[in-house]
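re: that chain from earlier
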Amino acid sequence: MGHEFSGRPEPTIVREGEQVSDGPDPMIGQVLSGLYKVDRRIGEGGMGTVYMAVHIHLNKPFAVKVLSEKVAANKQAIDRLLMEAQTASSIDHDNIVDVVSFDTTDDGRVFLVMEMLEGVSLSDLVEEGPMRLERALPIIYQICQALEAAHARGIIHRDLKPENVFIVRKREADFVKVLDFGISKVKSAEAEQVRMTRTGQLVGTPLYMSPEQARGETDVDHRADIYALGVMLYEMLVGRPPFEGGNYFQLLWKHGNEVPEAPQRRRSDLPSGVDAAIMRALEKKPGDRFETMALFEAALVAAAPEVGVSPERLVSLPPAEPARRSVMPMVVAGAVVVILGIAGLLILRPDPESPPSPALAAQPPFAPSADVEVQEETPPVEIPLGMDLPATNALVHFASTPSGATVFRGDEELGTTPFETSLPLGVSITVRYQRAGFRAAEVDVVPEEGGRVEQRLRRRAAGAARMSDLPQPRMTL
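^ sequence. v structure.
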């Protein structure tokens, strides 16, 4: 039976019809926890390698995420993976990926076992252009329901984006799975005592980041997810996100200060109620957005009643609140200082053909946010200009979506993604991603041991290049 999916391989999933070759890998053939026999490698995850394994008793496939040896030596990385396992499994919702085990191999390698998914990521569908309302809204409804369940348990995703939403087909309909709760903030006293991220680190992808996250606020609540979902729905229906820019700074400024153009002005056939609901979700102040995911969903259901929703779900939805249209700008104070103070954070270079943003040029001097967490044991180190850094190298992993991009440092070819290479520790360099059919992207990198540079490439459109060809790298442990 045919299908309409096409796209790139993702972590913890297998593409429909995709053939992944086996390589010389010591993990293949191992039986993990006495139950899961590793069959083949299927991709690269955020902190290691992803395999397909088969349950030896049930003959059922599972995805296994194995930490790389270098990352596994970092206790913080292990704690983060354990948090991901505990977080995802504690929600127990059909629209959230099911994590079934967290364990170590006989030789000490740490792994996570989760359900195997076959389908496509939402980012693939977004790349194909504006989606029909009849397809976009049911996907959004399921994301609302998944995040509503997470929020009810005090869990905030904080990195909601199309890459973290996976679509499988069930009974000729789209079925959603929300992935990667690895950087979630669990609002409990015990979790608050464990700082999983470095001082002031921005959590989230700039295209979908809420104003409060852009400011580096530590007390981010569930309404940050509502904002991110509003950005995602805007992009799904219009074909591009509400805010675009040449670098991180422009995006952070726009999310905090600029009023987005109403989606109905970019796509005239959208119902007014859908337009108003999206604008409500994109309010700058969290208190002006929908209070819950259920209210956001209810507003969309009321605005487009012709789009199907299950009768039992309709009964459980609260009545929709009147959607407001005003979006009050607020200054993103301290965003640049937060970014520059992070060791190993990647700063994007603006497109040389793109003029600087007028709003960015007019912004006032930035000051550090008083709310940014301070990690006493790892204070930032200032290096005087002209001072030579130690000639110590760091092993850095380069990846791209889609994979197969060639990475250059000047005229030197470093490798083809995914790959690892040794670079001078702490010495800022500029790398360039190139892949046929996609727009080239330049990224400034400050290498750190075990760091990872991820780059989402944009397809090269006919005619003028879009500002949404923005690189979105991040370096994580």
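The chain is about 25% helix and 20% strand.
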